Prior knowledge:
Elements: H1 10-15, H2 17-20, H3 22-27, E1 33-46, E2 64-67, E3 79-82, H4 94-104, E4 117-121, H5 128-136, E5 142-155
Antiparallel strand pairs: 1-5, 2-3, 3-4, 4-5
Amino acid sequence: LRQPRTHVMWPKVYLNESTFKLFEWLRQYETDASMIRDMTFKATMSRDRAMSDQDTKVSFGLSVSVVEGVQVENSAPPVLVVGPGYHCDKETSAVRRWNRQQRCLQHSETCLIPGDEILKVNDISTDANAMAEELSNGSAVKLDIVVKRSVDIRVIRTQ
Length: 159
């Protein structure tokens, strides 16, 4: 049984681009790339009723972590962040189906990736712990989430 991770590194890199300058460095080598900041999108997924997940943390194929808010001034409320373990779930999970569908539609920028911040889960939007609980709710069949990606790189592919 896989142990849950206790930290998620990438949100700190994404949220501190001014310090790490990773995306700035990437852009100097790709002239056809553009940086997108604070992109939000909605993802709607349905769990296959035949799925019988024992691990409630990945019941939709989504591992998440409640991370203390990253802010220079005092304290920020905790945020819910997509963790690195989603790819360990079943090939037929809702998140994997969502990501495949988005790639087929050539909307890969709306694939869920580690480091994405979840702003809303169904009707819950103010409490990261309550959103995590909603994600692990074994009786929920449909999942409507609003996701924020602090920084994304869009590369235009030319044939």
